[in-house]
Amino acid sequence: MTHIHVVGARPNFMKAAPVIKALVELGEVPTLIHTGQHYDALMSDVFFRDLGIPAPDVHLGVGSGSHAQQTAALLTELERVFREHQPEGVVVYGDVNSTLAAALASSKLGIPTAHVEAGLRSFDRSMPEEINRVVTDALADLHLVTSPEALALLSREGISADRMHFVGNTMIDSLIANRHLFDDGVATALGISEPYGVITLHRPGNVDDRRALRTIVSALAEVSRFVPLVFPVHPRGKAGLEAVGLESSERLRLVEPLGYIDFMSLVSGAALVITDSGGIQEETTVLGIPCLTMRPNTERPITITQGTNRLVRPDELGGAVEAILKSPPDLRPPPPLWDGHAGGRAASVIADWLRALRDQR
Ligand code: UD1
């Protein structure tokens, strides 16, 4: 008997790697499915290499499309593979379309489903990820959460306490396990030695809307006058950025997406990060790097209350950057259980759950 882990998009990989590794150490035999939601080598293969994730047992090659097209293709392919493998359980990660589709396909086949990173809520249904989170949690049988407030949020949605486990943040395990490899190689190769900032932007709300993008690009140009910026460009934002006339310059360097070690190296050496990513709010919190999140809300409030994160509008960006450069915030202890051992805790909960499922058969 096997159980299946489903990954598909870049942020899944660092969350799944420590859990799969710890389950193998416990003697379980996981099957890994890559949906192919992300397929460029720089969005996928490099993460498998950097994080030492075993090659997927099945690669579905689903690729891009509208939400309906992509989710429909994911559902069809995942249902086929679940029927073929007859897993005793399915484990899904985070909040991407692959997560939602896997939870839906498995639940409809009656396969028990576990959700790693359950219970995060931005309460903003204009974000596709929020819909994915709510539906995945409603379907899942086992909820593994990264921070205590998720327990209360899940309970408000009717999830019983025996189905939730506060295990900590498995993505931070990947960070801590690889921290000794982070260096100034990427910054040096780019010829940057003075304090610099790192940008990542890919949310539809920021990069798909030309008017929003123009405002953001002019705020970034203003910031680049007093701190040089490096911007690894996600494929989603590339065309829009070019269309509003953003070009790489000495002070605002546009580069290809980076692998895990290169990206975290760049972030570790930065004076600040400007982002709309979810995971980077958490990674900067642990690294003690000030993070300015260009979003009206976050599903990760602990990165504000106990971390280095602050939500900003484009018109607030310049002032926020100046304040950070003048007096960088003090390093605070990381949120509870973001300690490098969450994968082990998640794996032992999942292994107990699988044993209980076997006993019931
Ligand atoms: C997805 C997730 C988002 C996550 C992000 C991390 C959903 C709904 N969104 O957003 O939560 O923060 O991944 O990166 O699941 N593309 C490529 N090459 C690739 C992958 C994508 O060129 O390898 C381009 C395609 O034009 C594609 C677009 O990026 O249409 C968007 O890709 P998609 O997977 O739909 O969403 P992301 O924006 O990457």
What report would you give on this structure?
The protein is α/β, with parallel strands linked by helices and 361 residues long. It has two domains: 189 residues, Glycogen Phosphorylase B (Rossmann fold, 3-Layer(aba) Sandwich); 147 residues, Rossmann fold, CATH 3.40.50.2000. The chain contains 16 helices and 13 strands. The strands form two sheets. Strands 3-2-1-4-5-6-7 form a seven-stranded parallel sheet, with helices on both faces. β1, α1 and β2 form a beta-alpha-beta unit. α3 crosses α4, α4 runs parallel beside α5 and α10 runs parallel beside α15. The longest helix has 19 residues. The protein is globular. It starts with a strand and ends with a helix. The model has no long low-confidence stretch (mean pLDDT 97). The structure holds uridine-diphosphate-N-acetylglucosamine. Uridine-diphosphate-N-acetylglucosamine binds next to α1, α5 and α11.
What secondary-structure arrangement, pairings included, does this model have?
Blueprint: E1 3-7, H1 10-25, E2 30-34, H2 45-51, E3 58-59, H3 67-85, E4 90-93, H4 97-108, E5 113-118, H5 128-139, E6 142-145, H6 149-156, E7 164-166, H7 170-178, H8 185-189, E8 197-200, H9 204-207, H10 210-224, E9 229-232, H11 235-243, E10 252-255, H12 260-268, E11 272-275, H13 279-287, E12 291-293, H14 302-305, E13 309-311, H15 314-326, H16 342-360
Parallel strand pairs: 1-2, 1-4, 2-3, 4-5, 5-6, 6-7, 8-9, 8-11, 9-10, 11-12, 12-13
